[in-house]
């Protein structure tokens, strides 16, 4: 293994571009119970929106990679679905994806919502899983602005006594407090190596998939009850125009006719609202004018269709 003292002062990539010395690169899995703040934290560290965020649990369905540059390190974050006790096929696939993301990463960061009065069963199951793998992790206590300092300290001590965590960071993913300290630590912890992506790339997720996720976020935020969990969004077409604008056509698949009616709303008001909010978010994300077209179709058993799982990056047989 090379020594940092032996690293040349200049490194050039295949195109001959000079790259910084002492380069490092690594994969960092963000895991935690549903709604711990993983997606918010990744977007904060990456500096852009690559993972959708809602107040509802189980919003993230598959692994989303976000890429951050900090010092001379390229940090590749893997935002995973929340880990919980699954019941349905889709839920089992989501939890399996989360554990796979943790297993493939050099570093694991466990997020815990510090506003919770006690350590929940989902978080304890995550700790048990890490113990079973004999895996050390970093703990990020999130939402620290919602808990008194003395209670926060007691919570940190309770976690540290479990023997799984090598470091504990106290952060607010929403406000950014403590996040830079976490980034500093991760930049120093990832192994030496060439960067895997261009410096200005925020994600390796295809833009068509990110666009579909943005629309699914608006559906989660504007539809009630269990309906958001019974639908999926696919970007069917992406057409670039000479004036720099883009036409995006997406289909929202639901399982029942009554779900379709709920998505459309009376006189089409609901779908118009969702289209407007999604289009605005897309324009801010890709910095281009967007013409968004949404269609709602019934596909009764989409949640039992292996093809849908492949498109989401999930294992149908989990």
Question: What is the percent of helical residues?
Answer: 25-40%
Radius of gyration based on Cα positions: 21 Å
> What is the distance, rounded to the nearest whole angstrom, between the alpha carbons of the first and last residues?
37 Å
What number is the mean pLDDT?
83
Based on secondary structure, the structural category is alpha/beta
Strand content: 15-25%
Task: Write out key terms for the chains shown.
318 residues, alpha/beta, 6-stranded mixed sheet, 3-stranded mixed sheet
Task: Give a written overview of the molecule.
This protein is an alpha/beta fold and 318 residues long. The protein is built from nine helices and eleven strands. The strands form three sheets. Strands 4-5-3-6-7-8 form a six-stranded mixed β-sheet, sandwiched between helices. It has a three-stranded mixed β-sheet with strand order 9-10-11. The chain has a two-stranded antiparallel ribbon with strand order 1-2. β9 and β10 form a beta hairpin. α6 packs across α8. The longest helix is centred in the last third of the chain and has 18 residues. The two termini are 37 Å apart.
């Amino acid at each position: 293994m090379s020594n940092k003292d032996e690293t040349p002062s200049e490194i050039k990539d295949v195109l001959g571009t000079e790259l910084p010395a002492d380069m490092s690169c690594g994969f960092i899995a963000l895991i935690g119970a549903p709604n711990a703040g993983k997606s918010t934290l990744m977007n904060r560290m990456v500096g852009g929106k690559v993972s959708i965020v809602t107040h509802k649990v189980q919003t993230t369905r598959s692994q989303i990679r976000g890429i951050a540059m900090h010092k001379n390190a390229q940090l590749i974050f893997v935002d995973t679905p929340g880990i919980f006790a699954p019941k349905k096929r889709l839920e089992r696939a989501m939890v399996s994806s989360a554990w796979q993301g943790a297993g493939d990463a050099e570093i694991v960061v466990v997020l815990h919502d510090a506003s919770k009065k006690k350590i929940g069963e989902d978080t304890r199951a995550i700790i048990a899983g890490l113990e079973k793998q004999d895996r050390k992790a970093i703990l990020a206590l999130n939402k620290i602005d919602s808990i008194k300092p003395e209670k926060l300290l007691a919570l940190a001590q309770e976690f540290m006594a479990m023997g799984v965590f090598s470091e504990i960071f106290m952060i607010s993913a929403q406000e950014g407090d403590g996040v830079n300290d976490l980034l500093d630590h991760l930049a120093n912890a990832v192994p030496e190596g060439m960067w895997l992506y261009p410096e200005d790339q925020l994600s390796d997720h295809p833009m068509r998939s990110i666009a579909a996720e943005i629309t699914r976020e608006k559906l989660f935020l504007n539809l009630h009850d269990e309906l958001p969990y019974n639908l999926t969004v696919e970007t069917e077409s992406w057409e670039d125009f000479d004036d720099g604008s883009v036409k995006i056509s997406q289909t929202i698949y639901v399982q029942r006719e009554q779900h379709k009616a709920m998505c459309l709303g009376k006189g089409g008001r609901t779908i118009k609202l969702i289209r407007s909010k999604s289009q605005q978010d897309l324009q801010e994300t890709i910095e281009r004018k967007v013409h968004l077209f949404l269609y709602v179709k019934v596909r009764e058993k989409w949640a039992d269709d292996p093809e849908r799982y492949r498109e989401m990056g999930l294992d149908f047989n989990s």
